[in-house]
Amino acid sequence: MMLALSVAITVPLLLLVLLVDNAHTRFLLLFFIWGSTAGFLASEINGELLSMAGITLQALKIQFAPLVEELLKAVPLVVLWFVAPKYLQRREIVFAAVFAGFGFSLVENFSYLIQQQQLSSVALTQYVITRSVSTTVMHGTTTGIIGATLYTLSGETLDAYGFKLLFALYGYCLAVLLHALFNIVVLFAVLGQRIAILSGLVSYIVLWLLFRIRH
Amino acid sequence: MTISEGVKRLSILLLAVAATAVLLTESVMIYSYLDGRPLLSEFGFDIHYLVMNSVLIASAGLLGVAAYQSRNLLLFIGSCGIGSWTLAHIYWTLYVYLAGQPISYPSVAELGFQGFYLVMIPAVVYLQQRASTDRPVWLIGAVVLLVGAVIGTNILYGTGVSLFVYSTVSATLIGTVLLFGLSLVLYTPYRLFGAGVCLFAAADGLYIVLAISSPVLSVPYVDPVWYLSATLLTAGLIRYQREGMLE
Description:
The complex is a heterodimer of chains A (215) and B (247).
Chain A: H1 2-19, H2 23-52, H3 57-73, H4 75-83, H5 92-115, H6 121-154, H7 164-187, H8 192-214
Helix pairs in contact in A: 1-2, 1-5, 2-3, 2-5, 3-7, 5-6, 6-7, 6-8
Chain B: H1 5-34, H2 42-70, H3 73-99, H4 109-130, H5 137-157, H6 161-187, H7 191-213, H8 223-242
Helix pairs in contact in B: 1-2, 1-8, 2-3, 2-8, 3-4, 3-8, 4-6, 5-6, 6-7, 7-8
Protein backbone atom coordinates (compact mmCIF):
# COMPACT_ATOMS: atom_id res chain seq x y z
CA MET A 1 0.00 0.00 0.00
CA MET A 2 2.79 2.42 0.92
CA LEU A 3 4.44 1.83 -2.44
CA ALA A 4 1.21 2.62 -4.27
CA LEU A 5 0.69 5.74 -2.16
CA SER A 6 4.22 6.90 -2.78
CA VAL A 7 3.91 6.35 -6.54
CA ALA A 8 0.50 8.09 -6.60
CA ILE A 9 2.11 11.20 -5.14
CA THR A 10 5.50 11.18 -6.80
CA VAL A 11 4.52 10.49 -10.43
CA PRO A 12 2.17 13.50 -10.87
CA LEU A 13 4.67 15.70 -9.09
CA LEU A 14 7.52 14.47 -11.30
CA LEU A 15 5.43 15.31 -14.35
CA LEU A 16 4.77 18.70 -12.82
CA VAL A 17 8.50 19.30 -12.34
CA LEU A 18 8.97 18.97 -16.11
CA LEU A 19 6.35 21.67 -16.72
CA VAL A 20 7.62 24.20 -14.20
CA ASP A 21 9.99 26.84 -15.57
CA ASN A 22 11.11 28.34 -12.29
CA ALA A 23 14.27 26.58 -11.04
CA HIS A 24 13.54 27.48 -7.42
CA THR A 25 10.10 25.85 -7.53
CA ARG A 26 11.54 22.79 -9.29
CA PHE A 27 14.17 22.47 -6.56
CA LEU A 28 11.52 22.57 -3.82
CA LEU A 29 9.26 20.12 -5.66
CA LEU A 30 12.12 17.65 -6.04
CA PHE A 31 12.68 17.72 -2.28
CA PHE A 32 8.97 17.17 -1.72
CA ILE A 33 9.08 14.18 -4.06
CA TRP A 34 12.06 12.77 -2.20
CA GLY A 35 10.14 13.19 1.07
CA SER A 36 7.22 11.13 -0.20
CA THR A 37 9.62 8.46 -1.51
CA ALA A 38 11.36 8.43 1.87
CA GLY A 39 7.96 7.85 3.48
CA PHE A 40 7.65 4.58 1.57
CA LEU A 41 11.26 3.54 2.30
CA ALA A 42 10.85 4.30 6.00
CA SER A 43 7.69 2.20 6.25
CA GLU A 44 9.54 -0.72 4.62
CA ILE A 45 12.53 -0.43 6.97
CA ASN A 46 10.30 0.02 10.03
CA GLY A 47 8.30 -3.04 8.96
CA GLU A 48 11.50 -5.08 8.70
CA LEU A 49 12.60 -3.87 12.13
CA LEU A 50 9.28 -4.98 13.60
CA SER A 51 9.32 -8.43 12.04
CA MET A 52 13.02 -9.31 12.00
CA ALA A 53 14.60 -7.47 14.91
CA GLY A 54 11.70 -8.44 17.16
CA ILE A 55 11.14 -5.02 18.69
CA THR A 56 7.76 -3.89 19.99
CA LEU A 57 5.55 -1.31 18.21
CA GLN A 58 5.98 1.06 21.14
CA ALA A 59 9.78 0.78 21.01
CA LEU A 60 9.68 1.30 17.25
CA LYS A 61 7.65 4.50 17.53
CA ILE A 62 9.58 6.17 20.33
CA GLN A 63 13.09 4.76 19.81
CA PHE A 64 13.88 3.42 16.33
CA ALA A 65 11.50 5.10 13.85
CA PRO A 66 12.84 8.65 14.47
CA LEU A 67 16.40 7.42 13.79
CA VAL A 68 15.43 5.85 10.46
CA GLU A 69 13.00 8.55 9.31
CA GLU A 70 15.22 11.55 10.02
CA LEU A 71 18.13 9.86 8.25
CA LEU A 72 16.04 9.07 5.16
CA LYS A 73 14.48 12.53 4.93
CA ALA A 74 17.93 14.13 5.10
CA VAL A 75 19.50 12.00 2.34
CA PRO A 76 19.36 14.71 -0.40
CA LEU A 77 20.85 17.25 2.01
CA VAL A 78 23.75 14.93 2.80
CA VAL A 79 24.24 14.20 -0.90
CA LEU A 80 24.34 17.94 -1.63
CA TRP A 81 26.87 18.46 1.17
CA PHE A 82 29.28 16.11 -0.56
CA VAL A 83 28.41 16.60 -4.23
CA ALA A 84 27.30 20.22 -4.65
CA PRO A 85 27.97 22.17 -1.42
CA LYS A 86 27.28 25.51 -3.13
CA TYR A 87 23.55 24.68 -3.07
CA LEU A 88 23.71 24.58 0.72
CA GLN A 89 24.82 28.22 0.78
CA ARG A 90 21.40 29.32 -0.49
CA ARG A 91 18.80 29.90 2.18
CA GLU A 92 16.23 28.06 0.04
CA ILE A 93 17.87 24.89 1.31
CA VAL A 94 16.09 25.35 4.65
CA PHE A 95 12.73 25.57 2.84
CA ALA A 96 13.68 22.59 0.69
CA ALA A 97 14.41 20.54 3.83
CA VAL A 98 11.00 21.51 5.23
CA PHE A 99 9.45 20.44 1.91
CA ALA A 100 11.08 17.01 2.24
CA GLY A 101 9.58 16.71 5.73
CA PHE A 102 6.12 17.71 4.46
CA GLY A 103 6.37 15.22 1.57
CA PHE A 104 7.25 12.47 4.01
CA SER A 105 4.36 13.42 6.24
CA LEU A 106 1.88 13.38 3.34
CA VAL A 107 2.53 9.69 2.61
CA GLU A 108 2.47 8.86 6.31
CA ASN A 109 -0.81 10.73 6.83
CA PHE A 110 -2.44 8.91 3.91
CA SER A 111 -1.34 5.53 5.22
CA TYR A 112 -2.81 6.25 8.66
CA LEU A 113 -5.95 7.63 7.01
CA ILE A 114 -6.53 4.38 5.12
CA GLN A 115 -6.16 2.41 8.34
CA GLN A 116 -8.94 4.48 10.01
CA GLN A 117 -11.79 3.62 7.63
CA GLN A 118 -14.11 2.64 10.47
CA LEU A 119 -14.40 6.30 11.55
CA SER A 120 -17.28 8.55 10.46
CA SER A 121 -16.49 11.25 7.91
CA VAL A 122 -16.52 13.99 10.59
CA ALA A 123 -14.24 12.00 12.88
CA LEU A 124 -12.00 11.17 9.94
CA THR A 125 -11.72 14.85 8.96
CA GLN A 126 -10.92 15.72 12.57
CA TYR A 127 -8.27 13.00 12.58
CA VAL A 128 -6.70 14.32 9.38
CA ILE A 129 -6.70 17.91 10.62
CA THR A 130 -5.02 16.84 13.85
CA ARG A 131 -2.28 14.99 11.99
CA SER A 132 -1.89 17.71 9.37
CA VAL A 133 -1.13 20.48 11.83
CA SER A 134 0.82 18.44 14.36
CA THR A 135 2.74 15.57 12.71
CA THR A 136 3.28 17.43 9.46
CA VAL A 137 4.69 20.46 11.24
CA MET A 138 6.92 18.18 13.33
CA HIS A 139 8.32 16.40 10.25
CA GLY A 140 8.91 19.72 8.48
CA THR A 141 10.55 21.24 11.55
CA THR A 142 12.92 18.35 12.25
CA THR A 143 14.16 18.11 8.65
CA GLY A 144 14.29 21.92 8.62
CA ILE A 145 16.65 21.77 11.62
CA ILE A 146 19.03 19.55 9.66
CA GLY A 147 18.73 21.88 6.66
CA ALA A 148 19.35 24.97 8.80
CA THR A 149 22.39 23.30 10.40
CA LEU A 150 23.92 22.49 7.01
CA TYR A 151 23.06 25.97 5.71
CA THR A 152 24.88 27.54 8.70
CA LEU A 153 27.84 25.21 8.28
CA SER A 154 28.19 26.06 4.60
CA GLY A 155 28.74 29.73 5.48
CA GLU A 156 31.60 31.29 7.43
CA THR A 157 29.76 31.59 10.76
CA LEU A 158 31.37 28.57 12.39
CA ASP A 159 34.74 28.68 10.63
CA ALA A 160 36.56 29.77 13.80
CA TYR A 161 35.38 26.64 15.61
CA GLY A 162 36.16 23.96 13.03
CA PHE A 163 34.77 20.45 13.68
CA LYS A 164 31.99 20.98 11.14
CA LEU A 165 31.14 17.29 11.04
CA LEU A 166 30.37 17.34 14.76
CA PHE A 167 27.96 20.26 14.29
CA ALA A 168 26.27 18.40 11.41
CA LEU A 169 25.89 15.32 13.63
CA TYR A 170 24.47 17.54 16.34
CA GLY A 171 21.77 18.77 13.94
CA TYR A 172 20.77 15.19 13.18
CA CYS A 173 20.78 14.22 16.88
CA LEU A 174 18.58 17.19 17.75
CA ALA A 175 16.12 16.36 14.94
CA VAL A 176 15.84 12.72 16.08
CA LEU A 177 15.40 13.72 19.70
CA LEU A 178 12.63 16.23 18.95
CA HIS A 179 10.90 13.63 16.77
CA ALA A 180 11.15 11.02 19.53
CA LEU A 181 9.86 13.50 22.12
CA PHE A 182 6.88 14.31 19.89
CA ASN A 183 6.14 10.61 19.41
CA ILE A 184 6.32 9.86 23.13
CA VAL A 185 3.93 12.73 23.91
CA VAL A 186 1.49 11.60 21.20
CA LEU A 187 1.76 7.88 21.97
CA PHE A 188 0.90 8.32 25.62
CA ALA A 189 -1.60 11.16 24.88
CA VAL A 190 0.09 13.29 27.52
CA LEU A 191 -1.44 16.63 26.67
CA GLY A 192 -4.48 15.77 24.58
CA GLN A 193 -5.57 16.51 21.01
CA ARG A 194 -6.20 20.25 21.39
CA ILE A 195 -2.73 20.88 22.77
CA ALA A 196 -1.22 18.81 19.94
CA ILE A 197 -2.98 20.96 17.34
CA LEU A 198 -2.25 24.20 19.18
CA SER A 199 1.42 23.44 19.71
CA GLY A 200 1.80 22.50 16.04
CA LEU A 201 0.14 25.68 14.85
CA VAL A 202 1.92 27.95 17.32
CA SER A 203 5.35 26.47 16.57
CA TYR A 204 4.68 26.81 12.82
CA ILE A 205 3.70 30.49 13.18
CA VAL A 206 6.67 31.23 15.48
CA LEU A 207 9.13 29.57 13.07
CA TRP A 208 7.58 31.39 10.11
CA LEU A 209 7.81 34.76 11.90
CA LEU A 210 11.41 34.11 12.98
CA PHE A 211 12.40 33.22 9.45
CA ARG A 212 10.68 36.28 7.99
CA ILE A 213 12.24 38.63 10.57
CA ARG A 214 15.75 37.24 10.06
CA HIS A 215 15.55 37.68 6.31
CA MET B 1 26.49 44.13 22.31
CA THR B 2 26.42 43.51 26.05
CA ILE B 3 24.48 41.18 28.29
CA SER B 4 22.05 42.99 30.59
CA GLU B 5 22.66 43.22 34.33
CA GLY B 6 19.40 41.33 34.93
CA VAL B 7 20.59 38.29 32.97
CA LYS B 8 23.89 38.30 34.85
CA ARG B 9 22.12 38.45 38.21
CA LEU B 10 19.73 35.71 37.17
CA SER B 11 22.65 33.45 36.22
CA ILE B 12 24.19 33.92 39.67
CA LEU B 13 20.82 33.36 41.33
CA LEU B 14 20.34 30.18 39.29
CA LEU B 15 23.75 28.92 40.37
CA ALA B 16 22.88 29.62 44.01
CA VAL B 17 19.50 27.87 43.68
CA ALA B 18 21.16 24.84 42.05
CA ALA B 19 23.86 24.67 44.75
CA THR B 20 21.20 24.81 47.48
CA ALA B 21 19.14 22.11 45.76
CA VAL B 22 22.25 19.92 45.44
CA LEU B 23 23.05 20.28 49.14
CA LEU B 24 19.46 19.51 50.17
CA THR B 25 19.06 16.53 47.80
CA GLU B 26 22.39 14.94 48.66
CA SER B 27 21.77 15.47 52.41
CA VAL B 28 18.38 13.74 52.19
CA MET B 29 19.91 10.85 50.24
CA ILE B 30 22.83 10.40 52.65
CA TYR B 31 20.44 10.52 55.62
CA SER B 32 18.13 7.94 53.98
CA TYR B 33 21.08 5.71 53.08
CA LEU B 34 22.42 5.75 56.64
CA ASP B 35 18.90 5.05 57.88
CA GLY B 36 18.66 1.99 55.59
CA ARG B 37 15.77 3.44 53.56
CA PRO B 38 15.50 4.03 49.78
CA LEU B 39 17.46 7.14 48.74
CA LEU B 40 14.32 9.06 47.78
CA SER B 41 10.60 8.46 48.30
CA GLU B 42 8.20 8.49 45.33
CA PHE B 43 7.30 12.11 46.10
CA GLY B 44 11.00 12.88 46.58
CA PHE B 45 11.77 11.56 43.09
CA ASP B 46 8.97 13.72 41.62
CA ILE B 47 10.38 16.86 43.23
CA HIS B 48 13.94 15.87 42.36
CA TYR B 49 13.20 15.47 38.64
CA LEU B 50 11.05 18.61 38.60
CA VAL B 51 13.90 20.66 40.11
CA MET B 52 16.48 19.06 37.81
CA ASN B 53 14.55 19.66 34.60
CA SER B 54 13.54 23.20 35.66
CA VAL B 55 17.13 24.20 36.44
CA LEU B 56 18.38 22.69 33.17
CA ILE B 57 15.69 24.47 31.12
CA ALA B 58 16.45 27.75 32.92
CA SER B 59 20.20 27.32 32.25
CA ALA B 60 19.76 26.66 28.54
CA GLY B 61 17.16 29.44 28.22
CA LEU B 62 19.23 32.02 30.09
CA LEU B 63 22.30 31.27 28.00
CA GLY B 64 20.14 31.56 24.87
CA VAL B 65 18.94 35.01 25.97
CA ALA B 66 22.52 36.03 26.76
CA ALA B 67 23.65 34.79 23.34
CA TYR B 68 20.90 36.83 21.69
CA GLN B 69 21.77 39.98 23.66
CA SER B 70 25.51 39.70 23.02
CA ARG B 71 25.32 38.13 19.53
CA ASN B 72 28.04 35.76 20.77
CA LEU B 73 28.24 32.42 19.01
CA LEU B 74 30.03 30.63 21.84
CA LEU B 75 27.16 31.41 24.20
CA PHE B 76 24.72 30.10 21.59
CA ILE B 77 26.76 26.90 21.25
CA GLY B 78 26.71 26.52 25.04
CA SER B 79 22.95 27.00 25.06
CA CYS B 80 22.55 24.38 22.30
CA GLY B 81 24.71 21.91 24.24
CA ILE B 82 22.81 22.28 27.51
CA GLY B 83 19.53 22.39 25.55
CA SER B 84 20.18 19.07 23.85
CA TRP B 85 21.14 17.39 27.13
CA THR B 86 18.01 18.87 28.73
CA LEU B 87 15.73 17.60 25.94
CA ALA B 88 17.27 14.15 26.30
CA HIS B 89 16.64 14.21 30.04
CA ILE B 90 13.05 15.34 29.53
CA TYR B 91 12.60 12.41 27.11
CA TRP B 92 14.15 10.09 29.71
CA THR B 93 11.87 11.43 32.47
CA LEU B 94 8.73 11.22 30.30
CA TYR B 95 9.59 7.65 29.32
CA VAL B 96 10.09 6.59 32.93
CA TYR B 97 6.86 8.22 34.09
CA LEU B 98 4.62 7.37 31.12
CA ALA B 99 5.82 3.90 30.24
CA GLY B 100 6.06 3.09 33.95
CA GLN B 101 9.47 1.49 33.55
CA PRO B 102 13.06 2.72 33.50
CA ILE B 103 14.40 3.22 30.01
CA SER B 104 16.94 0.61 28.91
CA TYR B 105 20.41 1.93 28.16
CA PRO B 106 21.51 3.06 25.56
CA SER B 107 18.33 4.65 24.22
CA VAL B 108 17.49 7.37 21.70
CA ALA B 109 18.03 9.85 24.55
CA GLU B 110 21.74 9.11 24.16
CA LEU B 111 21.74 11.26 21.01
CA GLY B 112 20.80 14.26 23.11
CA PHE B 113 23.21 13.42 25.92
CA GLN B 114 26.09 12.92 23.48
CA GLY B 115 24.88 15.98 21.52
CA PHE B 116 26.17 18.06 24.44
CA TYR B 117 29.70 16.76 23.78
CA LEU B 118 29.41 17.14 20.01
CA VAL B 119 29.15 20.91 20.43
CA MET B 120 31.29 21.20 23.55
CA ILE B 121 34.38 19.74 21.84
CA PRO B 122 34.62 22.69 19.40
CA ALA B 123 33.85 25.06 22.31
CA VAL B 124 36.61 23.80 24.64
CA VAL B 125 39.16 23.61 21.82
CA TYR B 126 38.22 27.16 20.76
CA LEU B 127 38.66 28.49 24.31
CA GLN B 128 41.95 26.64 24.66
CA GLN B 129 43.21 28.35 21.48
CA ARG B 130 41.89 31.75 22.59
CA ALA B 131 43.72 31.59 25.90
CA SER B 132 47.01 32.21 24.03
CA THR B 133 48.74 29.59 26.10
CA ASP B 134 50.45 26.59 24.54
CA ARG B 135 48.37 23.46 24.55
CA PRO B 136 49.78 21.26 27.35
CA VAL B 137 51.94 18.45 25.97
CA TRP B 138 50.06 15.77 27.88
CA LEU B 139 46.63 16.72 26.48
CA ILE B 140 46.44 14.98 23.10
CA GLY B 141 48.45 12.04 24.46
CA ALA B 142 46.01 11.62 27.33
CA VAL B 143 43.00 11.65 24.97
CA VAL B 144 44.64 9.03 22.72
CA LEU B 145 45.62 6.95 25.75
CA LEU B 146 42.08 7.04 27.12
CA VAL B 147 40.49 5.97 23.83
CA GLY B 148 43.18 3.29 23.41
CA ALA B 149 42.51 1.99 26.91
CA VAL B 150 38.76 1.70 26.18
CA ILE B 151 39.38 -0.11 22.88
CA GLY B 152 41.95 -2.38 24.59
CA THR B 153 39.54 -3.23 27.42
CA ASN B 154 36.81 -4.05 24.90
CA ILE B 155 39.13 -6.37 22.96
CA LEU B 156 40.44 -7.97 26.17
CA TYR B 157 36.95 -8.76 27.46
CA GLY B 158 35.59 -9.66 24.01
CA THR B 159 32.54 -7.39 24.24
CA GLY B 160 29.91 -7.31 21.46
CA VAL B 161 29.95 -4.86 18.56
CA SER B 162 27.28 -2.55 19.96
CA LEU B 163 29.01 -2.20 23.34
CA PHE B 164 32.35 -1.72 21.59
CA VAL B 165 31.02 1.10 19.40
CA TYR B 166 29.02 2.66 22.22
CA SER B 167 31.83 2.69 24.78
CA THR B 168 34.45 3.87 22.27
CA VAL B 169 32.30 6.75 20.96
CA SER B 170 31.30 7.77 24.49
CA ALA B 171 34.86 7.60 25.80
CA THR B 172 36.17 9.66 22.87
CA LEU B 173 33.55 12.39 23.23
CA ILE B 174 33.42 12.55 27.02
CA GLY B 175 37.15 11.99 27.48
CA THR B 176 38.08 14.79 25.07
CA VAL B 177 35.80 17.27 26.81
CA LEU B 178 36.95 16.14 30.26
CA LEU B 179 40.66 16.48 29.48
CA PHE B 180 40.34 19.75 27.56
CA GLY B 181 38.15 21.05 30.41
CA LEU B 182 40.89 20.10 32.86
CA SER B 183 43.46 22.00 30.82
CA LEU B 184 41.15 25.05 30.84
CA VAL B 185 41.01 24.87 34.65
CA LEU B 186 44.77 24.43 35.04
CA TYR B 187 46.26 26.74 32.42
CA THR B 188 43.71 29.35 31.28
CA PRO B 189 41.52 32.07 32.78
CA TYR B 190 38.39 30.10 31.77
CA ARG B 191 38.42 28.09 35.02
CA LEU B 192 34.70 28.31 35.81
CA PHE B 193 33.75 27.00 32.38
CA GLY B 194 36.44 24.31 32.58
CA ALA B 195 35.16 23.21 35.99
CA GLY B 196 31.61 23.06 34.62
CA VAL B 197 32.47 20.83 31.66
CA CYS B 198 34.76 18.65 33.81
CA LEU B 199 31.99 18.03 36.34
CA PHE B 200 29.49 17.34 33.56
CA ALA B 201 31.80 14.90 31.81
CA ALA B 202 32.83 13.17 35.03
CA ALA B 203 29.16 12.59 35.92
CA ASP B 204 28.38 11.25 32.44
CA GLY B 205 31.48 9.03 32.50
CA LEU B 206 30.52 7.58 35.88
CA TYR B 207 26.95 7.01 34.69
CA ILE B 208 28.10 5.16 31.57
CA VAL B 209 30.45 2.91 33.56
CA LEU B 210 27.56 2.05 35.90
CA ALA B 211 25.09 1.64 33.03
CA ILE B 212 27.31 -0.84 31.17
CA SER B 213 27.04 -3.24 34.12
CA SER B 214 23.33 -2.50 34.73
CA PRO B 215 21.53 -1.30 31.56
CA VAL B 216 18.34 -0.30 33.41
CA LEU B 217 19.51 2.34 35.79
CA SER B 218 18.56 5.41 37.78
CA VAL B 219 21.29 7.23 39.72
CA PRO B 220 19.71 10.05 41.75
CA TYR B 221 22.97 10.70 43.61
CA VAL B 222 24.70 11.71 40.33
CA ASP B 223 21.81 13.82 38.97
CA PRO B 224 22.59 16.97 41.02
CA VAL B 225 26.11 17.14 39.52
CA TRP B 226 24.61 17.63 36.05
CA TYR B 227 22.36 20.52 36.86
CA LEU B 228 24.97 22.19 39.06
CA SER B 229 27.50 22.00 36.21
CA ALA B 230 24.95 23.39 33.73
CA THR B 231 24.47 26.47 35.92
CA LEU B 232 28.26 26.78 36.33
CA LEU B 233 28.67 26.78 32.54
CA THR B 234 25.93 29.38 32.14
CA ALA B 235 27.25 31.70 34.86
CA GLY B 236 30.83 31.28 33.61
CA LEU B 237 30.10 32.11 29.98
CA ILE B 238 27.92 35.11 30.90
CA ARG B 239 30.67 36.44 33.19
CA TYR B 240 33.36 36.03 30.51
CA GLN B 241 31.27 37.83 27.94
CA ARG B 242 30.49 40.73 30.29
CA GLU B 243 34.15 41.07 31.27
CA GLY B 244 35.21 41.13 27.61
CA MET B 245 37.09 37.83 27.82
CA LEU B 246 35.29 36.49 24.75
CA GLU B 247 35.58 39.59 22.56
